[in-house]
Amino acid sequence: MLAKRIIPCLDIKDGQTVKGINFVNLHHAGDPIELGKAYSEQGADELVYLDITASHEGRKTFTELVGRIAKEINIPFTVGGGINELSDVDRLLNAGADKISINSAAIRRPELIDEIANHFGSQVCVVAIDAKQTERGWKCYLNGGRLETERDLFAWAKEANERGAGEILFTSMDHDGVKQGFANEALHQLSTMLTIPVIASGGAGNMEHFRDAFTQGHADAALAASVFHFGEIKISELKEYLKQQNITIRL
Question: What is the pTM of this model?
Fold first, then answer.
């Protein structure tokens, strides 16, 4: 049984960590390097840094910041935002990132997944999917949740899997920041149908929510932001709790 992973997510805007609710109303949450170091020391398994306005504003991810993070942090970290071509991936991996996350660019040009997997290996390629439940089922969104597409969450996740993605990072936009729990039914469906790990994102409010993402949603990892940034949940205490719930976790 592979250990379940706990992953703090740091949304970066103008070089600082921010956090919002349902993808809007952003608040400052601290220095991304200092936060990352603290999470590493607390026992986080990995980190995710997302340049949340890069795709929307047409900017490239903050490469210099990635280099500084790599010098200070000793656990794997993923970088996303504004990655549109192989040269972007190359630049970020060279700066010290372990994996990259693609979202809008992959939906617009799915072949990018194949290219990254073939060039750098599937383990480097995390496909992030921001989705919302609509009257027509779960639909995927572009540009940080600003633009609805016709793509179905499950069909798109399956295609990304088949094209060579190493992991799926699924964020339920309706659950994001409201701390009412993860979208466990959708998570369970994804985890059952895919052959690659699924990371749960959007909805963590207490320790039980993490437990449920693993036991009900069958997620391989759970990602959260504000509960960690604002000290509501300590990672070391969360891991002890999950261990008591008979969930395999690295302490």
Answer: 0.92
